[in-house]
Amino acid sequence: MANKNMFMQEYLFKGKQCDMVNALTNKIDLESDAKIFSSTIELFIFAALIGCYHNKRSKPIKDNKNVTKIFPGQFQSHSVELKRAFKIVTLTANSDAVDPIERLNNTFRYTDADDNFTIFEEYMLGGLEIIYDAIFSDGDTTYQDCLVSLNKLLDPFNEQKEDVVSPSNEDFLF
What we know:
Layout: E1 11-14, H1 15-25, H2 40-53, E2 67-70, H3 72-77, H4 79-92, H5 100-108, H6 114-136, H7 143-163
Antiparallel strand pairs: 1-2
Helix pairs in contact: 1-6, 2-4, 2-6, 4-5, 6-7
């Protein structure tokens, strides 16, 4: 269970979740020499947003056979992105079940409540599963295959972006 010190100590992915992280952060193929995610911390942040967007939560696995770590220094070096993702997740999590005022308080007043970190972790692990399944469920073995699968996963974001109306310069005249 995650707590308020989650981003100040090393984080461990265990068992099946460790295997997923390794697959997503290691080289895809020898020909391209490319990776889907260049670091585990970048996957960690992205997965939390994907899990929250798709409302998918998963519990951490307790298996200690294989472990992949994120070190505290990695959290510190990505603190801006991490804080932004954390706020997005806590603000939008459980939007149907939790009162909007309570979500605002959890996001901006009571940020170090252990429940916030547990929710963030569960969405991150759910997002990890979504990303892994989207990329590797079709048997993708080349960088190009993985890139196509990742783009399919991100298509809903592109569709929503097109729906947003950009204000014209005239809207800002006084």
